[in-house]
Each structure stands twice: as C-alpha cells, then as structure tokens.
Amino acid sequence: MPFGYASPEQIMRDKADYARKGIARGRSVVVLQYVDGILFVAPNPSRALHKISEIYDRIGFAAVGRYNEFEELRLGGIRYADINGYTYDRSDVTGRGLANLYASNLGRIFTESIKSLEVEVVVAEVGETKDGDAIYRLTFDGSVFDEHGFAAMGGQAEAVASRLKERYRESMTLADALEVALTALTEPGGERPPVGQLEVAVLDRNREHRKFLRLTGARLDRLLAQTSTPPADAAEPSGEPSGESSGESAGPSAPSSGDKPSTPPPTGPEGPVDDGSSPL
C-alpha cells in the first residue's frame, strides 16, 4: 500500500506548530539589560534543574522548552567555548559565535529530523560598556534575532514582551530591572511568582574575570526588598506571627490551608521536570 503524500511545506508547518505548542507550555523567561550588565529572570519550580546558566566568562545562557533538549545545546556550547578559548584566546569566544553555532544545529535538526527541538534559547554577552552588550534569541528552526534592551520567550511570550516594552527603560538599576521583569512575568491582576520558585542571575560587567552570578538566598531577598512590590513570600512582616491569626504557635503538625509551609510548596501542575521530558 503506497504511503500518503504530504508536501514539504505542509511537513515544515506541522513541525513548526508542534514545536511552538511545546515551547508555549513552558514558563516564560525574561532577559534584559540594566546599567551594570544583563539580568535573567525565570519562574522555575525545579530546584535541581536550571533554565539559566553560564557558558563562558562573559556569556550566559537561558532557555525554555524541554530540559533534556536545551541541556544538550548548553553542554555543546560549553565544549565549543572551552576548545576555542584554549586553542586561540579567551577573547575569541563570543556570544555571536555561540549564536551562530546554535543556529546551525537548530536549523539542521529542524530540516532533517522528523521531530524538531521544542526549545527557544537566549545567548547573552556582557561587554566592557553597555554598548558592548549583546542579546541573541534563537528559535526552534535556527532563526536568530538580535534583541536590543530585552527579550522574552516561552509561555505567553508576546504578552510578556508587550509588558516589557511598556516599562523598560535604559540604564535601570538592578532592583528596577528586577521589578520590571517580575511585572512583565505577572498576568494583570495575578500574583507574582513565589520567591522560592524564582531563578535569577546576572552578567555583571563590574565583576572580575567571571561575570556570571546566580542570585539566591539572602542576596535575592535583599534585592527583592528594594523593588516596589516584592513577592508575598520574600519576607515575613516583622510585627506579625508566622502562624494563624488565632494565636496558636506553629507546631510540628501539618499546616492548615491558610499557613505558609516551612518547605517549598508543590511545584504546580507541571511539577519538577526531573526527567527532562516536560516543558520547563
């Protein structure tokens, strides 16, 4: 029995639709410039798997989609950077070069494979001055977009980018940039991502050698306290007990539905992506 025929255009459309749907199921990632470098912000329920990472001295990586797929891209970028930095010079490893490498790989897989990768990637490089900063956004088919000021991908990327465009301004402080990013990631009338489910990192041009710094713990809490409306669990009110209003002390028993648990809350319908099989 002969196989059915589908035109190349239809095959490409089907693969593109498949990839877009998978990427849209992930949580959005925001990358934007501030006065001292580049800020990465992403809601991430998993504490073991990162959507934001370091590639090289001045280069950061952020992705959304299937973890196992973009992790392969990240590791390939690290190998490329290490080999070129060792063979030639560390200054020869650039964000543009990495973006071209990823574009080539993504385009080849999209064209030749039955299934395209369900990923979208940002490669960001911090320069000695603001004019030297670069943000490259790459889509599942290998297209490269040279973004200026900010980039958003995954989830409701268009709505997030629209809110970013309304609030972004040049030469923001780090606290102001974080405020803009959190506002963009929050649906109008909705609640901001809990601080325990935020992944935040920067490429800081003022740091020596390695510019990448992951913001966690007390450092992130202090930064959130400088924003106008920090997430609800960023800090407990100093004059209120952490238990219920009835005055009962917090004991070892399980908390009621109105209490804040002492451990991180469940990660929601998507859950942690420990096997890399679901969008992150």
Question: Cα distance, first to last residue?
Answer: 41 Å
- Largest sheet: spatial strand order: 8-1-2-9-10
Q: Taking all residues together, what is the mean pLDDT? A: 84
Q: Give the C-alpha Rg.
A: 21 Å
- Derived from helix and strand composition plus strand pairing, the structural class reads alpha+beta
User: How many strands, what sense, and barrel or not for the largest sheet?
Assistant: 5 strands, antiparallel
Count, helices: 6
How would you describe the shape?
A: globular
Binned, the helix content reads 25-40%
The ordered H/E elements are HEEEEHHEEEEHHEEH
- Pick out the low-confidence regions: 235-274
Strand proportion, as a percent range, falls in 15-25%
- How many DSSP E strands? 10
Provide key terms for this protein:
single chain, 280 residues, alpha+beta, five-stranded antiparallel β-sheet, 6 helices
Tell me what you see in this structure.
The protein is of the alpha+beta class. The protein has six helices and ten strands; from the N terminus they run αββββααββββααββα. The protein has helices spanning 8-24, 67-87, 95-112, 157-167, 174-185, 217-226, and strands spanning 29-34, 37-43, 52-56, 59-65, 119-125, 134-138, 144-147, 150-153, 198-204, 212-215. The strands form two sheets. The chain has a five-stranded antiparallel beta sheet. It has a five-stranded antiparallel beta sheet with strand order 3-4-5-6-7. Strand 9 (198-204) and strand 10 (212-215) form a beta hairpin. Residues 235-274 have low confidence and may be disordered.
